[in-house]
From TrEMBL:
It comes from the Eukaryota. Pfam families: B_lectin (PF01453). This is Bulb-type lectin domain-containing protein. Residues 1-66 form the Bulb-type lectin domain. It comes from Selaginella moellendorffii.
Length: 118
């Protein structure tokens, strides 16, 4: 949910009757799919690794593949305007200095100098 401040082992991920998926740390809501009231009836984790919230007839409302972080998996698509950002190291998942972004006419990779805005 947040690469800079990951939740602890006792965090909870709850799929509510309102169709919202919520990550909580104690009483603090850390992240939400914001799908409350959108007709979500099921949550499915596919063998591809894609976590999907569906309406009836498997219409996708939200899917994890639309929110890449530092990598893509087989069959995951990098959509226009979306970027993946390297991790600082294998053990530090905070955003690193390298980006890959799909722009209208090119796939652009670049490096960011430490301390400069994204």
């Amino acid at each position: 949910a947040n690469r800079d401040f990951p939740v602890s082992a006792n965090a909870t991920l709850a799929f509510g009757g309102d169709g919202n998926l919520v990550l909580s740390q104690g009483s603090l809501q850390v992240w939400s799919s914001n799908t409350s009231g959108q007709g979500v009836v099921a949550m499915v984790l596919y063998v591809t690794g894609n976590l999907v919230l569906h309406r009836e007839k498997f219409e996708i409302v939200w899917q994890s593949f639309d929110h890449p972080t530092d990598s893509l998996v087989v069959n995951q698509i990098l959509k226009l305007g979306t970027r993946i950002v390297s991790s600082v190291s294998p053990t530090n998942k905070s955003p690193g200095s390298f980006y890959l972004e799909l722009q209208p006419h090119a796939l652009v990779g670049f490096a960011q100098a430490p301390g400069t805005p994204q």
